[in-house]
Request: fold
Amino acid sequence: MVPPGLVKGENHLMGDVLVTGGTGNLGRVVCDKLREAGHEVRVLSRRVRPGQSVRGDLRTGEGIPEAVAGADTIVHLATAPRGDVEACSRLIAAVLPRTPHLIFTSIVGVDRIPLAYYAAKTECERLITTSGLPYTIQRATQFHSLVMRFFHSQRRLPLVFAPGFDFQPVDVRDVADRLVAHVAAGPRERVPDIGGPEVRSARSLAQAYLEAARRRRRVVGLNLPGRVFSTFRGGAHLSPEHADGGVTFEDFLATRF
Ligand SMILES: NC(=O)c1ccc[n+]([C@@H]2O[C@H](COP(=O)([O-])OP(=O)(O)OC[C@H]3O[C@@H](n4cnc5c(N)ncnc54)[C@H](OP(=O)(O)O)[C@@H]3O)[C@@H](O)[C@H]2O)c1
Reply:
């Protein structure tokens, strides 16, 4: 739907939007919603899809100057298990000295949970806040799809392990709505987190998954020693004060099974 006050295809106020990671879980939904709102959208991908994407690789830098040229807003969602800091720094260098609005999606608790992937996200946040670019940083809790994948990956086991802490999974459609609003609103620096509607034990999420998948398995609690596990147990990845997502885990599962 085109937001009130805007005309499909005529929102010159908004200009061109480049979405890195626009082929990913969140990115696909963001691109659809941006187009529905009347934006001109280009998708950066390592593989070209005719008419929709520009080829570029943030790991090597190939195609990046061409991809960012003329973009008024860049929604940076590309991610990989390794190399996110180099990718972010390459993106910033390619953009400057122009100053488009850079929107970055980070994760709730990245600066409190000692995981290498999270340390890289924290460093990306720092690079962006010190880049001189106008920016918006949106942190989100874990996506429903990630939590589902964790349980689904155990489908060949006779039982399901569920870590002994809570999750607050959020739907990518809710996160995408927030990002589309940031595109229209312009740079806001670090904005309030977005979390899913419910903080729930991993055990209860595992049971919801099993029910949706029509599988009978015993759910077994998993507790591990170490700082990573204890920060998750302490809820560093949760944002109950921003339980703004509307789509529950069961709603999401209903679209998958
Ligand atoms: N998953 C979660 O639970 C969660 C929670 C909170 C925040 N986030 C954040 O939300 C963002 C999107 O996550 P997601 O789960 O939607 O990602 P995803 O599905 O894993 O997609 C990754 C995307 O990155 C692109 N990419 C990877 N390496 C690239 C490279 N070298 N050059 C250019 N593009 C590259 C891929 O595009 P091609 O393969 O087409 O090149 C793909 O579109 C990430 O910043 C993530 O940290 C995720």
User: Anything to note?
Assistant: Residues 20-21, 23-27, 44-47, 57-59, 77-80, 87, 105, 107, 140, 142-143, 146 surround NAP (CB under 6 Å). The chain has one domain: 16-254. Residues 116-129 form the longest helix (14 residues).
